[in-house]
Amino acid sequence: MTDKGQNYLLNFGPQHPAAHGVLRLIIELTGEKIISMDPHIGFLHRGTEKLIESKSYLQAIPYFDRLDYVSMLSQEHGFVLAIENLLNIQIHKRAQYVRVLFDEITRLLNHILCITTHALDIGAITPFLWGFEERERMLLFYEKISGARMHAAYYRAGGILSDLPDCILLEILDFTAEFVHFIDVLNDILTNNPIWKSRLINTGIISKKSALDFGFTGPVLRSSGIPWDLRKVQPYECYADLEFQVPVSSSGDCYSRYLIRMIEMFESIKIIEQSVAELLGQTNRQNNYKACSMNTCFVEANLNYDTLFDCNLYNFYYDSKFSMEELIFFFREYSDGYDVPPGSVYTVIEAPKGETGVFLVSDGSNKPYRCKIKAPGFLHLQGLDFMSRGFLLADVVTNLGSLDIVFGEVDR
User: Fold this and answer.
1) What's the domain count of the chain?
2) 215: Cβ–Cβ under 8 A, 6 or more apart, which residues?
3) What's the pLDDT score for residue 297?
4) For residue 263, is it within any domain?
5) pLDDT recorded at residue 101
6) Are residues 271 and 151 in the same domain?
7) Does 68 share its domain with 97?
8) Each residue of 259-271: pLDDT tens digit?
9) pLDDT tens digits, residue range 160-213?
């Protein structure tokens, strides 16, 4: 009990199964009505940014997979773009399309998890079971390109780890054709379901002003009527060459956030199919290609052989036959890494949950001098208090699920 009469405090978490991570909420209630709530975070804190600063640029990449650990490759993307900006290099178009292809596969992975676990939080079990079958199929594509089911460490400054394996593009096309049917089934189960609608419509409303004031991004921002998507307004890689739409709603409630993600999955499939068509029309392999990066074969940079030595950037394309020189460079690359010219840069991408930013400072060595990460979930969690006030305790889970929060990036 508190000194406010009938009001009392309730601990939600930190191990609640619907908390989407290790979250503790201290909720002030009158009956079952929420007066206020105070999110307590930090239970997953691992000092990721300081760990990155103690590693070489190559060794730091796997730390990004573990931030938003359900949208792995998109986390790597912002970091390698920041390195490329400091190096002032432009990667090959083929590598750009491969990155975009797997960014959008990652967006599908994220939205499936968000929507189906949100439904599970509210009491619908079937979408979760069906959705994870589709998610496993996409994780097989991760495994084929990197050898890892989840934490791929596939993107590199200057391109990608290696070219795509044979036949994977046709397999991806087959998958997307079947995945459209899955979205239709998911739509039939949830979109007009009276229980689902009664729990989500007019719940957790975020106004346009609140979305801007709190710095919301991604589907949370677009559900409040603001058509902001970095793939459109600030294109990176080859997004400017692709045709897709940015869904926007003005309702700002949990239901609109659900619809935004459903439509975004259709748009991601369009991008995937365009990327696959482009990649199928390109030369599939490049052999023994010296590049200004680590372990990647697709870099367009005006660098001669001597410059590679001056920059301490050694790379040769994976091939079945290594010369002794290539083998020395390969081991040197993984032990010493490569030096990045002094400077600072802030790079931001449109990750599935919103804008993920990386502020990178280089002192000219082979390790980042400073690395600071902007996570969209950290900002979205701040809104849980105002969007839940006046609602019932059961609506906390509804609101939290609609924000799509993963605490790997919130706590870092």
Assistant:
1) 2
2) 379
3) 37
4) yes
5) 92
6) yes
7) yes
8) 889 888 888 999 9
9) 887 788 788 888 888 888 888 888 888 888 888 889 888 888 888 888 888 898
Q: Based on the domain organization, do 85 and 221 belong to the same domain?
A: yes
Question: b vs e for 340-370, b when ≥16 Cβ sit within 10 Å of the residue's Cβ?
Answer: beeeeeebbbbbbbbbbbbbbbbeeebbbee
| 188 and 270 co-located in one domain | yes
Structural domain of 198: 48-411
Contacts of 124 (CB under 8 A, 6+ apart): 189, 190, 193, 195, 196
The confidence score (pLDDT) of residue 150 equals 83
CA 103 to chain centre: 8
